[in-house]
Amino acid sequence: MVGASGSIPDWNTLLASRPQGAVRGRLAPSPTGELHLGNAQSALGAWLSVRHRGGSLVLRIEDLDKDRVLPGGAQRCARDLEWLGLDWDEDDTLTGPCAPYQQTLRQDLYTSALIELSRRGRLFPCALSRQDLRQLASAPHAGEPGEPGGGDRRYPPHLRPDPLPAPGWFHGEFSGECNLRFLCEDRDDTWQDLLHGEQRDNAGRRCGDFVLRRRDGVFSYQLAAVVDDALMGITDVVRGSDLLDSCSRQLQLWEALGATPPVFAHLPLLRAGHGAKLSKRESDLELATLRRAGVRPATVLGWLGWSLGLLPVPRPIGAHDLLDVFDWSRITTEDRVVPPDLTTALAGQ
User: Fold this and answer.
1) Where in the chain is the domain with CATH 3.40.50.620?
2) pLDDT of res. 282
3) Which whole number is the average pLDDT over 124-150?
4) Which is it for strands 270-271 and 336-337: parallel, antiparallel or unpaired?
5) CATH number at 20-96+268-347
6) Where are the beta strands (DSSP E) in the chain?
7) CATH 3.90.800.10 residue window(s) in the chain
8) Is the pTM higher than 0.90?
9) DSSP character for 267?
10) I need a labelling partner for 340 at 20 to 30 A (CA). Which of 84, 140, 146, 176 fits?
């Protein structure tokens, strides 16, 4: 799918060649740390959503943040998912129509999308740094006069270049002097979330024009996720509720790129005792730590199935057996606090 060396593939040609007509989901770990129970819960939800309808799954490695990627991290993520019994059909070691499945190897595809956004008048360069924006946000003129919420925008419309560059100005070149931002429309977007029902958000007012590629050449999560989901033919996006506020930004990107968005479902989060969502700093809840403590995969899956609302009580169960009880109407929307002694409790089962 990636163009020949030195060439950027045409976006519309790429889009026309994407897989279509089948249920497709993705497991998309980031190899910046070991997978923990929260990651496992999101992966389990994504796996169940697709497998209970006979669909296929891709394993996509989201390694855009190269400075934080751990050596061997991608392999350990795959090993942890396999240990849980969550399988997939496509990755960089299997045959598949969407290779490569590693984001750092898909840079030409993201550049192709930027060229298309430029052609449609939705891309512009920005020389302002984060510090510049912080200073502007604290200044008396940060918001447009009389504009509700104007001062809260990270990048409101009055900061755009005047005039904006002509459509088609970007051809893939990179100078390292500017960020590239998406021209985000001031509008209400609505969508149905499988768990949370109808959602409404105005990304233009809430966050304004957001960065798609940083001046150091790193592409944003928002762009990469949409491009990858579009070109991989993903129909089901299941992820944690901390990403719910990404939907309105991503829906504008989907539309601007001429692609049909997937169905979204945002699962509840697992939280540590202090209330924050589990992070990769919670080493005692890493799958590798649980495995070393003698915890069985079925025990982990049973606890996660109970946490999601699929089981009345935690009990050992395999991934394929969870398919028999999976139903979106049973999934809870409530976050759950992980007890501090969970590893010991699971190891004793």
Assistant:
1) 20-96+268-347
2) 60
3) 59
4) parallel
5) 3.40.50.620
6) 24-27, 56-59, 123-126, 179-182, 189-193, 197-201, 210-213, 236-240, 263-267, 270-271, 336-337
7) 107-225
8) yes
9) E
10) 84
Residue type, 50: V
**Helix axes of 247-256 and 221-231: crossing angle, nearest 10 degrees:** 50
Closest CA to 207 of 163, 152, 247, 262: 152
CB atoms < 10 A from the CB of 89, how many? 15
Distances (CA, A) of 277 to 39, 222, 224, 281: 11, 21, 24, 11
- Tell me the CB-side half-sphere exposure of residue 55, using CA atoms within 13 A: 24
| pLDDT confidence bin for 138, thresholds 50/70/90 | low
The whole-angstrom separation of Cα 274 and Cα 290 is 21
Q: Is 93 exposed, middle or buried (0-12, 13-18, 19+ CB in 10 A)?
A: exposed
Structure token pair of residue 27 = 């497991």
Q: How far apart (Å, rounded) are the C-alpha atoms in residues 269 and 37? A: 10
Residue range 11-30, pLDDT digits in tens: 999 999 999 999 999 999 99
- Distance between CA atoms of residues 63 and 102, nearest Å: 7
Q: Which CATH class is domain 107-225?
A: alpha beta
